[in-house]
Structures are given as C-alpha cells and as structure tokens.
C-alpha cells in the first residue's frame, strides 16, 4: 500500500461520528450577526477617533446593520487572500503612487485582525516577489511591523536607488492595508499616516514567516 | 397518496432556507474535516460554525453549486490564519450540540491523528484537503491561496514527517 493510500484510509477511519447539532445553521446565523457588531466595536476601540469616523461613515453609507441587505458589500466579498496593488514599471524601475505616501486619514499602525499578507513590488528597482501569500501568523507580522520605531518625515536621504516593496495586508471584510518600504534613499517604511525606520526588518519578518509557513 | 407540502417560512427568506438545507446536508462533512484539523469535538464545531457564519451572507451571491467550496475555503483559511489567536479559550458558539462533548478524544485519536496533530498548521491543512477531502493539488492550492508547488512541497514534508513520527513507528512495530 502506498503512503498516500495508507494516509487516505487512515484518516477516513480515524474521524469519529459528528455530534448531532440541528441548531448549527441557526447558531451560525446568530454568530454572523454578533461578529459584525463585535468587529465594529473592536475597530472603534483600536484605531481611535479617526477610524471611528470612517467606520460610522461606512456604516451609514451601507444602510446600517441589517445583515439581510442583498447589496451588503461585506456579504459580497469573497474570503480574502489579499492581492498586490498594481504598480507601473518603466525601464526596470517601479513607479510609486499615493499608496506609497503617508495618508493623514489612516491609522498610524497596521490594524489588527489581518488574515493574509503579500510581499509586493514597491517603488524602486524590481525584485522577485514571492508567489504565495502569508496566511499563518499574520498577526505576528502585524505586531512586528507595528513594533518598528516611528520616525518623523525623513530629512536626510541618499541619492541612490534600490528595491522598494509593499506589504499588503488583507482582512476578513475584504479590506486591505498597505505599507510601503524603501530599501534605499530615505530607508523608511510608510505605515498609515507616518513613517517608521528599519524597512528591511519588515521585509525580513515577512520572508521568515513565509519560509516556515 | 397526494402529499401536501406546507412550507413554514417563519418570516425567513428562501435564501436562508437554502442555507439551512446546505448546513443540514453538508455540515457533518465540514465537521469531519474540522475535527481532523483541531482534534477536538467542540473546537471542530466552533470552527465549522465560524466558517458558516463568515459565509452566510454570501449564500445568495455564491449560490448552492459553489457554496461548499466557498465554505471549505473559509474554514481552512480561518483555521490556518486565526487559530493561534482566536481559538485558545474563546468559544464563539453560544449553543452547545445536543450530544455531550465530553467524549474522550484521545480514544478516537489514533496514532495517525496524533501524528497529524504534530504537523504545522499549513501542512496539516494540505494533508486533510489532499487525503481526506480528496482534492487535487490545484484545488488544494485554490482553497489555501497558495501555488501548486507549495502544495507539493507541503505534502512531501508532511508525508516525510508522518513517516518518521515515533507514534507511527511505534504502531508499525506493534503490528510486526
């Protein structure tokens, strides 16, 4: 018997009979309704007043907390494995955009709760980006990025050019959050509304986790 | 004999009825995969219900033909990406299954399942999808959002680890 056949038969034999649970669908429905409320409260508590305004605005524009709305965008989003944001490349150099600059309306840290992350091309020279998204220990990556030292707007930058990267974080509701690092020049990592130092540490943190995934 | 079918809607939509029917038909199958991932009756139920809760709103858009694949993807990615943070103590389910869940799981966890529990989460998910759900490498890659090469390497590592597991070596010796 091959290893694969042995494994198939062994797994099939090992599983116990499921418990009877006629209320499974109802319980899932109730959990879905609770999750939405809980998630909103967690976001409010985490990112503060600026994000609170954004959440309330989003709630108002989506028509409130009626989970049965057919046009609910949360419902329409597929289970997210985040994709890289598009970037233009000319003559071997990737061009930056607004996504690579601080956004005064964004929080100053990567929001918690990311479920996937991708290392992507950022402005600068190109490099080979990994094919796979990170889906394990994403919260650890978030924590590591958020632990990098905050800095002000860079004042001294060298005139060299090197690789730039982005890390795109994906969330259950389909939203994304992108940080942008320069491994040259000002050597900064743009996170939300500000800058952090040691961008190479963020990239290394991603690659280390991807290597053990 | 002519049968009269009385549909009790209780104010609920046809979409919700379809979701209920899906859960009734496929919930146990999802639970079996969840049990292999978690090795625990109640955690498996929590995982299934969390996946169903995340997928519930998508029923109308995804439709019955594709919904199982959709839920399966949510279940496995939820297990992989949220396990460490979400499932150590928090039990999101308010309703307990009818059957008591105090079953001694170690009785059902044979040596193979115990060895499976030692694998990293990513490898374990690949093994369950490939060898329990019988998905192809491409389908497994699609569920987990990884490429086929990664599925192959994860499978290879998992099989190597299982082969060399002392638990399974001991089992082999017992049968010799």
Can you describe what's shown?
The complex is a heterodimer of chains A (about 210) and B (about 180). With about 210 residues, chain A is of the alpha+beta class. Chain A has five helices and nine strands, in the order αααββββαβββββα. Chain A has helices at about 5-15, 25-60, 75, 140-145, 200-210, and strands at about 90, 95, 115-120, 125, 150, 165-170, 175-180, 190, 195. In chain A, the strands form two sheets. Chain A has a six-stranded antiparallel β-sheet, covered by helices on one side. Residues about 40-80 of chain A have low confidence and may be disordered. Chain B has about 180 residues and is mainly alpha-helical. Chain B folds into two domains: about 15-100, Rna Polymerase Sigma Factor, Chain: A (Orthogonal Bundle), CATH 1.10.1740; about 110-175, Orthogonal Bundle (Arc Repressor Mutant, subunit A), CATH 1.10.10.10. The N and C termini of chain B lie far apart (about 60 Å). Mean pLDDT of chain B is about 75; it is low at about 1-10, about 85-110 and about 170-175. Chains A and B meet through helix 1, helix 2 and helix 3 of A and helix 1, helix 2, helix 4, helix 6 and helix 7 of B.
């Amino acid at each position: 018997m091959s290893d694969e056949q042995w494994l198939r038969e062994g797994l099939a034999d090992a599983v116990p009979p499921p418990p009877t649970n006629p209320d499974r669908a109802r319980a899932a429905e109730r959990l879905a309704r609770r999750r939405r409320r809980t998630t909103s409260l967690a976001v409010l508590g985490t990112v503060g007043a600026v994000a609170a305004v954004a959440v309330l605005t989003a709630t108002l524009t989506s028509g409130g907390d009626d989970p049965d709305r057919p046009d609910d965008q949360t419902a329409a989003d597929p289970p997210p494995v985040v994709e890289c944001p598009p970037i233009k490349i000319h003559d071997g150099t990737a061009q930056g955009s607004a996504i690579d600059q601080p956004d005064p309306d964004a929080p100053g840290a990567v929001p918690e709760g990311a479920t996937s992350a991708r290392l992507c091309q950022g402005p600068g020279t190109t490099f080979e980006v990994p094919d796979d998204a990170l889906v394990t220990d994403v919260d650890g990556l978030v924590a590591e990025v958020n632990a990098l030292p905050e800095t002000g707007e860079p004042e001294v930058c060298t005139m060299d050019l090197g690789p730039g990267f982005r890390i795109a974080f994906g969330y259950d509701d389909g939203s994304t959050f992108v940080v942008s690092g320069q491994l040259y020049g000002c050597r900064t990592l743009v996170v939300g509304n500000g800058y952090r130092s040691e961008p190479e540490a963020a990239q290394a943190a991603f690659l280390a986790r991807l290597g053990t995934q | 004999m002519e049968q009269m079918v009385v549909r009790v809607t209780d104010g609920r939509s046809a979409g919700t009825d379809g979701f209920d029917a899906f859960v009734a038909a496929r919930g146990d199958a999802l639970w079996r995969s969840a049990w292999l991932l978690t090795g625990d009756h109640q955690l498996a139920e929590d995982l299934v219900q969390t996946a169903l809760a995340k997928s519930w709103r998508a029923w109308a858009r995804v439709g019955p033909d594709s919904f199982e694949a959709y839920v399966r993807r949510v279940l496995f990615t939820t297990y992989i990406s949220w396990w460490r943070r979400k499932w150590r103590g928090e039990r999101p389910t308010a309703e307990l299954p009818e059957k008591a869940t105090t079953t001694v799981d170690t009785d059902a966890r044979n040596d193979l399942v115990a060895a499976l529990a030692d694998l990293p989460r990513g490898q374990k998910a690949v093994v369950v999808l490939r060898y329990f759900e019988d998905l192809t490498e491409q389908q497994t890659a699609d569920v987990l959002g990884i490429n086929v090469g990664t599925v192959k390497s994860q499978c290879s590592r998992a099989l190597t680890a299982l082969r060399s597991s002392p638990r399974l070596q001991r089992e082999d010796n017992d049968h010799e």
